[in-house]
Amino acid sequence: MFEAPADESLTATVTASDPAGIDYIDPLLYKGPASAPTAYLAAGSAPECTAVSDATTRCTWEFFMSQDLLRTTGAGTWYLHVNATALDGDYHRKAAASLRVLRAAKVTANAAPEPVAKGNPITITGVLSRVNWNDSRYYRYAGQPVRLQFRTPTGHYATVKTVTAGSTGYLRTTVTAARDGYWRYSFAGNTTTGPANAPGDYVDVR
Questions:
Q1: Which residue, 93, 136, 87, 114, is CA-closest to 181?
Q2: Of 32, 51, 142, 181, whose CA is between 20 and 30 Å from 114?
Q3: pTM reported for the whole predicted model
Q4: CATH architecture type of domain 105-203
């Protein structure tokens, strides 16, 4: 899995065997049905190939998924398809692997008031957004479940409740002040969007 908007590269290594030996291997990344891909990407570099034996060859390629190539509809699961041709003309075709290409997300958190008296309410607000690859800008992400988490100054984050982002990606909930610590929102991600954690906001409870 990797996330955009930054230009990203990945490598694919394929090992193919045939009794006659391997002539060449062609890889292709695609999204959608194999019979009618909705997007595809050829390797962006010449392969580095090694003869493992007389019958077996291993090749490595690099793929480049740049902002210029990606569109928002490209988020999701991609598949690596491989064609391997033997020296005697035999060929092998296989969907060799899959990966998730996800839109990057951001989430913020602000806990107030600071400080607060024990037993009084703390309101935690924030915004969930994700990148649009069509213009490389972040937009509010509505209707998504986001976890409100808390940790003490020396502890680890634990989920307190789940909050659903509103129609504008806005997050808001209230808890009762019990002890000092950090509050944050945590988005787990989904099939098209990567996870994100807000920086913890410390609240002094007196």
A1: 114
A2: 142
A3: 0.80
A4: Sandwich (2.60)
